[in-house]
Structure formats: C-alpha cells, structure tokens
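User: Can you recover a sequence for this backbone? Please restate the input before giving your answer.

Assistant: Of course. Working from this structure:
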C-alpha cells in the first residue's frame, strides 16, 4: 500500500489532482459552516436533534442544515433534478434521442439538469425557511421580506456552488465529484457522533455497541464483495481471413456486474422517502383542520418503522433496476458484438443475444438490489434490538462511504495503469 502511495506522490499531475480535490473538499466543509444571519443556531440544532427526518437530511448535508449555512441544502436540488431528467429521458422521445448521442447528448442533458437545479434550490430554500418559521418561534429571530429574499438567493447560490465544485472534482478523474461531496458530508459528522456516543455511554449498552461494530464490519465486507462481484459471459469471435492473415477465432468474456448502480439507488431512495414527511411538516401549522390532520397522518405513517422500512427497501430495489436499465443497454451490446463478429455460444446474434443479456442482467441485478435493500433497512432492524440511535443512519452511510471509496480507488488505479505504459 505504501508503495502505491509513493508511486502516486511521484506522478506530478496525479499528485496535483489529488491535492486539488482535497482542497475543494476543505472549501466545501468551510462553506457548510458559514451561517446565514437571523437564525438562533442553538434552537435550530435542538430542533434537528428532536426531528428524525430532518436529522437525517442534516447528516447528508454535512451538518449544513443545523448550521443554517449557505450550503444547507447540500446537493439535494441537483440530485432531484437528475432524477427528474432521468425519468423524462424514458418518457420524452427528444430527450431519449439526446441520450443516444453519446457525450454530446449527455452534456446537453446535464446542462438542462443544471438549469432545473436553480428553481428547485430556490423552492427548497423558501420551503425550509417557512418550515422553520412555522415549527418554532425561537429559530428565526428576525427575517423580513428583504432578508428572506436575500437568504433564498444565498442558499440557492450555495447549492449551485456545490454543484459546480462537484463537477470540478469529476473533471480531475479522481472519483465522482457529487459522490465525494456527499461522502465528505457523511464523514464530517462521524467525530461528533462518536463524541456524543462516548459522552452518553452507558456500560449496560456495551453489548449493543459490540453488536453494532460487528454488524458494521460484516456490512462493509458484504458491500465490497457485492461491488466487486461479476458474471462473466463467454463471447467467441468468428475467424476471418483477410489476404494471407487470419483474424479472430478467440474467446473472451463480457463482464456484467452484480451491482451496476453503485450507491446511486440509496441516494435516490433517501431523497424520495424524505420528501413526503418534509412537505407534511410544512403544512402542520395550516389553518385548515383537514390539512393539518392529513399532515399529521403522513408524519405518523413515515415514523412507523415497519412502513418506513418497507418503503425504503422497495425504493432501493426499484431504483437499482431503474438505474441499471439506464446505464446497461443489451440491444447496443448485441449490435456491437454482431458488427465485430462476436457471438455468445448457443445464442443467435442480434435480438436473441439482446434478450439473453437482458434475462441474465435481470437475474443478477436482483441479487444486488435485494442486498442493497437489506443493508439499507438492516440498521432499522438492529435499532430495535440494540436501542442505539446511530444505527438508524449507519446503513445508508456505510453504503455510500464504502461505494465512494471503491470508486475513487479504482479511478486512481486506472490513472496509474495508464501511466505504466512506455512513453506515457
């Protein structure tokens, strides 16, 4: 490991890229601690500690919400915009054609996603401020119309800033920028959580903490195993004679990953599952009685651990299949194999090959989807046994953290491999 680190440090441009990413992450953490005036931070932190849903949102914003910082929304608006356009790509033919254009189409869709992020961030900023106003009279100290407009614009600019620095990180090819920022936000709250756990440590709960540590280790091992698991499909190439030379006639493998979606389904599922109770809390102080009762019903339903766990599990499984459907195209793979003279033994080229690949993908993705879903709800099951609150957030956190680490390490290794060639 040390030899790899030394090798990385000796490569000038790779060293600069890593240092640049680290500097950007530091800027992100500084941004998450720049508060917006007019808010009682102590009352705000107590409010987030007493609200499980908002507390979970605060974790994924890196503590930006409890600080009421300029980056309080994190990358939530951008993720929401990405989900919207991925859904629209499947519905609107023009967007579907753009997606088939490769890099050019991807850049156009990404530009549309950026533009949609702006109004979404403004709406979420206004909604969050209104929610805090309605929830407690002591959180928002003084905020008139001008101060409200300034706060909304500032929070929106903070979200756009995070989106921009995330894309800067991605350009350095040292991991996905959006994922790394979410990773940094999760890791940043770990010291505070450990400190709170130590302060509130009860010797009678030692068994719970040991169980938590064991489950965490097993979960990490399982995540790594599933992330690296692949199904190899044998592909043969027909022999072709050109002049006096013979080409082809060899066998190779087409690797299909068990979990092609990575940690994306977890991020999407969390974004969706937190939306209804957050909207319901916004209408809790409505003057109409039926709206208030409906909001209370939604909040109570989502606080029910059984309902929450089932919905969370189903969303993770559904988004795993959805994202795999977007990134894996059996028709294109079958077409490319046919053009190159390749075929799967026992399967006819063309549509039969595409159907076979689709069948194999659906089967192996089922394993990955069920694993992700079980790991996501495992902390909810364990909390009932151990009574430890931090278990409620560890599943999603571990999935994202381990997934981002694996992805980043692979990209760095690919950079090293590329530079191993002579003359590079």
């Amino acid at each position: 490991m040390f030899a790899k680190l030394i090798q990385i440090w000796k490569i000038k441009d790779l060293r600069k890229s890593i240092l640049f990413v680290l500097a950007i992450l530091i800027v992100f953490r500084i941004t998450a601690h720049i508060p917006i005036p007019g808010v009682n931070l102590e009352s705000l932190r107590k409010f987030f500690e007493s609200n499980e849903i908002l507390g979970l949102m605060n974790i994924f914003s890196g503590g930006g919400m409890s600080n009421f910082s300029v980056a309080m929304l994190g990358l939530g608006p951008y993720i929401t915009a990405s989900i919207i356009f991925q859904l629209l790509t499947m519905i609107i033919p023009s967007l579907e054609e753009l997606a088939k254009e490769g890099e050019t189409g991807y850049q156009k869709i990404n530009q549309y996603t950026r533009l949609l992020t702006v109004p979404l961030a403004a709406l979420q900023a206004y909604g969050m401020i209104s929610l805090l106003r309605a929830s407690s009279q002591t959180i928002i100290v003084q905020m008139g119309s001008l101060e409200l407009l300034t706060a909304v614009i500032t929070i929106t600019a903070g979200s756009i800033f995070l989106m921009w620095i995330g894309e800067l990180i991605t350009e350095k090819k040292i991991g996905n920028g959006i994922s790394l920022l979410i990773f940094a936000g999760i890791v940043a709250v770990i010291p505070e959580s450990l400190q709170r756990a130590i302060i509130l440590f009860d010797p009678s709960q030692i068994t719970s903490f040991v169980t938590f540590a064991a489950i965490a280790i097993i979960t990490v091992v399982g995540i790594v195993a599933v992330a690296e698991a692949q199904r190899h499909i044998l592909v043969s190439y027909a022999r072709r004679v050109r002049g006096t030379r013979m080409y082809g006639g060899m066998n190779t493998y087409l690797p299909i990953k068990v979990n092609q979606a990575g940690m994306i389904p977890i991020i999407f599922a969390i974004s969706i599952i937190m939306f209804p109770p957050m909207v319901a809390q916004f209408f809790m102080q409505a003057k109409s009685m039926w709206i208030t009762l409906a909001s209370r019903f939604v909040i109570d339903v989502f606080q029910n651990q059984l309902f929450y766990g089932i919905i969370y599990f189903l969303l993770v499984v559904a988004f795993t299949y959805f994202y795999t459907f977007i990134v894996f195209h059996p028709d294109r793979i079958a077409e490319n194999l046919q053009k190159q003279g390749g075929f799967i033994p026992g399967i006819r080229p063309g549509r039969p090959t595409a159907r076979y690949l689709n069948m194999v993908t659906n089967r192996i993705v089922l394993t990955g989807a069920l694993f992700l879903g079980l790991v996501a709800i495992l902390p909810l099951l364990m909390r009932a046994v151990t009574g430890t609150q931090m278990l409620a957030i560890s599943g999603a956190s571990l999935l994202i953290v381990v997934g981002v680490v694996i992805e980043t390490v692979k990209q760095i290794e690919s950079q090293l491999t590329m530079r191993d060639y002579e003359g590079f």
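That completes the design. The two ends are 23 Å apart (CA to CA).
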